[in-house]
């Protein structure tokens, strides 16, 4: 199966950064204003640091576990290591193929491909595809879906 771009790791690191910087700065400012609260602030900083270290370890493993593959009959998307999810989406069931990219993904030259089917429970997303590959994959999937719809 094909992996997504390694640049998605940096995008996810940068996306989680505000969740650590803003509380840390707020805690420091509050600690400077109220000098008696430094005791619990040390505990909060240690907890925040522990979570940050855990995410530094977790995010690369999450990104490297995202895989996708085109076959003749279906699109395969696999995510996760501990709780592995493998979606098998027949081309004939595909209703819409979309591409999205926010400012962080755009800066990294990446896009997210989203596949919609008749099932509302299908969460078929392939994040972190290089822009050109995402556009080509969208065209391939759309063409194959149109062929399969004609056959049905």
Automatic annotation (TrEMBL):
> Which Pfam families does the UniProt record give?
bPH_2
Task: Output this protein's name.
Answer: Integral membrane protein
All copies of the YdbS-like PH domain together span 64-141
From what superkingdom does this record's organism come?
A: Bacteria
**UniProt key word Transmembrane helix:** yes
Q: Where are the transmembrane segments?
A: 12-33, 39-59
For this UniProt record, the keywords arranged alphabetically read as follows: Membrane, Transmembrane, Transmembrane helix
């Amino acid at each position: 199966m094909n992996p997504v771009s390694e640049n998605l790791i940096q995008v996810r690191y940068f996306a989680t950064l505000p969740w650590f910087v803003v509380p840390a700065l707020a805690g420091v400012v509050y600690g400077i204003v109220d000098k008696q609260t430094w005791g619990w602030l040390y505990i909060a900083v240690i907890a925040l640091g522990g979570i940050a270290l855990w995410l530094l370890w977790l995010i690369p493993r999450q990104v490297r576990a995202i895989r996708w593959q085109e076959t003749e009959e279906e699109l395969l998307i696999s995510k996760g290591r501990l709780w592995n999810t493998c979606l098998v989406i027949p081309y004939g069931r595909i209703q819409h193929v979309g591409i999205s990219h926010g400012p962080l993904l755009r800066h990294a030259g990446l896009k997210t491909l989203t596949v919609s089917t008749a099932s509302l429970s299908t969460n078929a997303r392939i994040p972190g595809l290089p822009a050109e590959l995402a556009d080509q994959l969208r065209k391939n999937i759309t063409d194959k879906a149109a062929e399969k719809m004609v056959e049905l």
